Amino acid sequence: MNEALRDIKGPLSLSSYINIFQLLAILVFLAILLFLFKFLFKRKKTLLNAAQKPAHEIAYELLEKLKAKDLIHQGKIKEYYSEVSAIIRHYLENRFLLKAPEMTTEEFLFYVRDYSQLIREHKILLKEFLLICDLVKFAKYVPSSPEIDAIFLSARKIVDETKEELFVK
Question: How many structural domains are present in the chain?
Answer without folding.
Answer: 2
